[in-house]
Specification:
Blueprint: H1 2-26, H2 40-48, H3 52-70, H4 91-102, H5 106-119
Length: 120
């Protein structure tokens, strides 16, 4: 009887841990490198309240604004960075696209945070 209880508790803890770690995997963390300079939590809170249409719109707005800026850039790294127009976007896709685009570059992080402020 005691062994059965221990097994049930182990399974319960295993499920709780999986739920916790799965949440962390999909949690937004792409602005964490800017935490020393800005309050990233306020951006994450706003973004977490948005729906898939908002995520799609933000990606496409990034595409439009960054294309305009990159046409004037004379820089090998930033002028070749591209964002493709998308037609559907869920939270996971949004996180992946933004992470890949920002690539922990401070100037792109500032560009993104400014974009979010303008979008809201």
């Amino acid at each position: 009887m005691f062994q059965m209880l221990v097994i049930v508790l182990m399974i319960e803890n295993y499920i709780k841990l999986n739920i916790f770690f799965n949440f962390k995997i999909y949690n937004m963390d792409f602005l964490d490198y800017l935490e020393d300079y800005i309050d990233t939590k306020k951006y994450y809170n706003k973004l977490n309240k948005m729906d898939n249409t908002d995520y799609k719109n933000i990606i496409n707005l990034m595409n439009i604004n960054y294309t305009k800026i990159s046409n004037d850039l004379d820089d090998k790294y930033y002028s070749v960075k591209k964002i493709n127009k998308i037609y559907k976007c869920d939270k996971t896709q949004f996180i992946n696209i933004v992470k890949e685009f920002l690539d922990e570059k401070y100037i792109l992080g500032i560009f993104f945070t400014r974009l979010i402020v303008n979008y809201i």
